[in-house]
Write a structure and sequence with these properties.
The complex is a heterotetramer, with 2 copies of chain A and 2 copies of chain C. Chain A is of the alpha+beta class. Helix content of chain A is 20%, strand content 30%. Chain A is built from 2 helices and 5 strands; from the N terminus they run E-H-E-H-E-E-E. A 5-stranded mixed beta sheet of chain A has the order 2-1-5-3-4. In chain A, a hairpin with a 2-residue loop joins strand 3 and strand 4. The N and C termini of chain A lie far apart (37 Å). Chain C is of the alpha+beta class. Chain C has a single domain, classed as Aldehyde Oxidoreductase, domain 3. In chain C, the strands form 3 sheets. Chain C has a 4-stranded mixed beta sheet with strand order 1-6-8-2. Chain C has a 3-stranded antiparallel beta sheet with strand order 7-5-9, with no helix packed on it. A two-stranded antiparallel sheet of chain C has the order 3-4. In chain C, strand 3 and strand 4 form a beta hairpin. The longest helix of chain C is centred in the middle third of the chain and has 18 residues. The radius of gyration of chain C is 15 Å and the shape is globular. The N and C termini of chain C lie far apart (38 Å). Classes of the chains: A alpha+beta, C alpha+beta. Chains in contact: A-D, B-C, C-D. At the C-D interface, strand 2 and helix 2 of C face strand 2 and helix 2 of D.
Amino acid sequence: MSVKLLAFAQAADVLGFRERGIDCEPEETPRAILARLAPALDPATLRVAVDCVYADWDAPVGTAAEIALIPPVSGG
Amino acid sequence: MSVKLLAFAQAADVLGFRERGIDCEPEETPRAILARLAPALDPATLRVAVDCVYADWDAPVGTAAEIALIPPVSGG
Amino acid sequence: METHIAFTKSVIVVPALALPSHEVGACVEFAGLVRETEHDRALAGLHYEAYEPMATRELARIFNELNAVHPCAAVVFIHRLGWVPVGEASLFVRVLSAHRGEALRFLATAIDRMKADVPIWKSVAARG
Amino acid sequence: METHIAFTKSVIVVPALALPSHEVGACVEFAGLVRETEHDRALAGLHYEAYEPMATRELARIFNELNAVHPCAAVVFIHRLGWVPVGEASLFVRVLSAHRGEALRFLATAIDRMKADVPIWKSVAARG
């Protein structure tokens, strides 16, 4: 299946992209996807959102359309 | 000496005036002045201000220019 | 702290925002509006009166005290007097500070203290 | 509770006050302004980015949760994105409620929650 991977703020700086289509399996977890595509990013320094909701790094992505890497937020 | 006596809100309703010049002695207290001029008003239901500062009902008015009867406030 | 205290018989006109410095990061504003019902009674408006010189003095004292605890850059306080129809503002307060915490605490406490101590009164009808 | 959430690339224009009912007695507004110094570093402005669909969803969820605890009549939330010069607002929030307590608590908690959980970021320079 194909999923859109979004990167924001420092995560985009490290990865060098803000959005990329990736292939993955429904049983794959965000942690595994990150390790495969962006080993430079430590999941302990980020949160992950799946289809616009904060998700567990270790929960399979299932039929998600969009996975986002969320560095510490700083709005306001 | 002559002092200006001001009445606000319910105090003005009871007294029927908002401002009146009165004669008093420096050693007279606000409590004594109220008892003399407005026995209908219970000092326990009011605060008194002397020259724009909250004062003790039992402190002599001294050289005050203005004594104000302050019912419970309700601004805002 | 810049302090501006005013009473007006007319509709409150919110003053243009003036920043005393580029260190101001928070602007908090409060408008108190006259509500249609108070104590289960339908109103067309409320009448406000104040002992203006004392109210100004008390407010300045309160603001100075609060500024020592919650340092702020500026406070603007405008209270309307006379008849205020339902839906219009009887009170406007603006507080500027570096960070939002101080301005929010200053504002909340200032209004509490005003309601306890500042000689301003509302009534359902105008007094003679 | 009426909820309005928006992001804009332009100067924030404060929307005219619209009262959902005559039971609204308190209007609290917050503007977050970009400060000249942050972490001892002089700035000309800040750059903001957001994950807009998720930020909107998170804000709506936070506002609904807060409304259950501090019932309010309306909330307006506008966050600017892109470059924001010093002295201009990056954030505007308005909360309307019957009494000031709810609106003040809603506002303070909403901003705290936004700063903890809503995917919006500031940086000293724009990102590629």
